[in-house]
Amino acid sequence: MKIYNTTVFAHNNEGGNPCPVVLEADGLTYDDMINIAEKLKLEVGIVLNSNNSSCEYEFKYFVPNREMEMCVHATIACVTILKKNKYLDKNKFSVETMAGVLEIEIIGDDSDFKVKVKQDNPEISNQSIDKLDIAKALNVPVNQFTDNPVKNISTSRFKTIIELKDVKTLNNLTPNYDDLWEVCDKIGSTGFYPFVKDEKNIYHARQFPNNTGYLEDSATGVAASALGIYVRDVMRQSFNELKVYQGFAMSSPSEIVVMNDYISNFVIGNAIVY
């Protein structure tokens, strides 16, 4: 077993979302894996050999409280460590995850590359979500929401997408976390993703996950992907590529790129190894 430290989606090489990566982990038990996440108090990407002949590796994802089905920033971290340690001999390949098979592409050369992760076909829940419940959990007046509906959207895990009116309100959010987790459980969400639209194809967001062992994420690829679907299919705004800024309220600025493919989308980013 080898553990490497990375940060993913850093903005101008600062901030990003920290993600330890464990290589050569085939001898680890479930308890071993979750204990690593508990000790580090971070989401951890774990690389195993895959029993699926169509996949290069199997990736597992652990937060301090449980195993997760899929995580984009940890996927990017795992691929980066594999690439930099010369475990990969191709730039297009698949990996096995609890959520299914992921298609991966490495863009660039060995010294400077980004990782492109294809997302599943989107699901937009048709359930009615009460904005008053969301506002209470976020600890803001409901009049800080735009007229657009709150939606649960998934391209791997359901996120609750919430449009607010201004960045100041977004950055000043101090949620009632017990209420937030209760609402997440009630509506089947893995986290709230409040956002604000800035100029064309630029968005600001924060992610409050559902009781994972930490209160906020500085960069969340699956949520940014869900936001891309919300922009395209709920707000009806077409785009080829959009940029999501996250983590600024945590002093860990992050930048996530979402590329539309007209069915679902791709999330693109890089990891810094330190």
UniProtKB/TrEMBL annotation:
Gene3D superfamilies named in the record: Diaminopimelate Epimerase, Chain A, domain 1
Species, as recorded: Staphylococcus schweitzeri
Record-linked InterPro entries: Phenazine_PhzF-like (IPR003719)
UniProt-listed Pfam families: PhzC-PhzF
Swiss-Prot/TrEMBL keywords: Isomerase
GO CC, alphabetical: cytoplasm
Listed GO MF terms: isomerase activity
Name of the protein described by the UniProt record: Phenazine biosynthesis, PhzF family protein
EC number annotated for this UniProt entry: 5.1.-.-
Family (UniProt): Belongs to the PhzF family.
Active-site annotation: 43
SUPFAM superfamilies in the cross-refs: Diaminopimelate epimerase-like (SSF54506)
